[in-house]
Design brief:
By secondary structure, the protein is an alpha/beta fold. The chain contains 16 helices and 16 strands. Strands 4-5-2-1-7-8-9-10 form an 8-stranded mixed sheet, sandwiched between helices. The protein has a 6-stranded parallel sheet with strand order 13-12-11-14-15-16, with helices on both faces. A two-stranded parallel ribbon has the order 3-6. The longest helix is centred in the first third of the chain and has 20 residues. The radius of gyration is 22 Å and the shape is globular.
Length: 405
């Protein structure tokens, strides 16, 4: 049996991670890696972008780059937040090298103190690019997890070669969906160093709650039809696309409600625009803005709903789909990223083309009247729990540690 000293030690490297200034950012990374941390020792290095005048920008954009403590402890794990130079809106092609240079001394000191064996980066650029530079400078293998921003970066003629170089340098490339794995191979990554490891669901936090009681907490009639979307209130997530469907849907579902759970995100804040859109179509009494909610409380609004809708522009592997399913909800979502891999059977939901408003409206309407096997949906979510994912990750980290020794 391996002792603690025999186990590989990890540095989780990501620019998207929860901290007091943005508690909802990167929760999916924390969920995954803190579970790994129960089996393997790890420290998180979560750099935060910095620019000398960014405090002035907050005067008219209060949520812009919220401050983070230099060091904190989360759930018993050490989390470091070194700053890295990043010019707002410009020179994104330099973010990778700035990120590596700005964090080098933090990582080097950690190497002497913590003696880590692997750098585990999340997102291909700038995080993965910077991590592979750090790994080369410190002679440590690097893994990169692709999470969904990569298809956009591939379309950028400047960022594409940087992303390709990072992935080719990495010792392992994990992808949360098969579509991202295929993308990595088009960039010259050997198939034998790729692994598809989707995100899982915490079935202790996400499980059905009595519907009548859940609805009473949100003042929703027991006989209503209820839609719900959970996510950051930004353009990509598509709350506005769902709102556009409501007038047509209410012609046949007059007692229809839409629950919106979420708040400002790193990608922006659409809250006021969404509220204005709802007011314009005269549905302020039917669209409920519930704000952000802690993960352990999300089962309440999810259990109050009939159908989960995510009209997103892009995703890697959306945890929220499995979380909704774990509460018994069928899903209507767009055919982007790994969504069709999560909603892999018509018994679990409906996939529609992105940008087809008529198809989205029709799918939601049909989902509201279909007799779903909700226990079957829950069973599917339970079969995708975190334990099997964590086992694959730990095995790969141990293999890399042996190869590097």
């Amino acid at each position: 049996m391996k002792t603690q000293s025999d186990l590989p030690r990890l540095v989780v490297f990501t620019t998207l991670f929860p901290h007091p200034g943005q508690p909802q950012a990167g929760i999916f990374i924390r969920e995954r890696m803190f579970r790994v941390g129960k089996k393997l020792p790890l420290v998180v290095v979560a750099p935060v972008p910095w620019f000398p005048l960014q405090g002035l920008i907050r005067m008219w954009r209060p949520h812009f780059r919220p401050s983070a403590p230099a060091r904190e402890e989360q759930q018993g794990f050490e989390v470091l937040h070194p700053r890295f130079l990043s010019v707002p809106g410009y020179a994104k092609s330099l973010d990778g090298i700035f990120l590596a240079l700005s964090t080098f001394w933090t990582i080097r000191r950690l190497k002497h103190r913590f003696r880590f064996d692997v750098i585990d980066a999340h997102f291909g650029y700038p995080d993965g690019y910077a991590a592979t530079l750090l790994g080369r400078w410190l002679n440590v293998p690097v893994t990169i997890t692709l999470r969904g921003t990569e298809p956009r970066h591939v379309q950028d003629r400047i960022l594409r070669p940087k992303l390709a170089k990072a992935l080719q340098r990495a010792a392992r490339v994990f992808s949360v969906s098969d579509s991202l794995c295929q993308l990595a191979m088009t960039l010259g990554v050997d198939q034998d160093k790729t692994r598809v490891v989707g995100n899982g669901v915490d079935t202790e936090k996400f499980r059905p709650f009595p519907r009548d009681e859940a609805r009473s907490r949100f003042n929703i009639p027991i006989d209503a039809k209820v839609l719900i979307t959970v996510g950051g209130l930004c353009e990509r997530k598509g709350f506005h696309r769902v709102i556009e469907c409501l007038p047509e849907l209410m012609k046949t579902h007059q007692n229809l409600y839409y629950l919106i759970v979420g708040g400002a995100s790193a990608e922006g804040d659409f809250t006021e625009r969404l509220k204005a859109q709802v007011q314009t179509i005269g549905l302020t009494d039917r669209v409920c803005f519930l704000g952000t909610m802690a993960p352990e409380k999300l089962k309440l609004p999810l259990s109050a709903a009939d159908v989960f809708v995510l009209a997103t522009r892009n995703e890697g592997w959306a945890n929220v789909l499995l979380e909704a399913m774990a509460c018994g909800l069928p899903v209507v979502t767009t055919d982007v990223g790994g969504n069709a891999e999560v909603v892999c059977n018509s018994e679990f939901g409906v996939i529609v083309p992105f940008g087809d408003q008529q198809a989205l409206t029709q799918a939601i309407g049909e989902a509201l009247v279909k007799a779903w096997n909700r226990q079957g949906i829950i069973a599917y979510a339970e079969a995708n729990n975190w334990e099997q994912r964590v086992e694959v990750l730990c095995q790969n980290f141990m293999e890399l540690s042996v190869e590097a020794s």
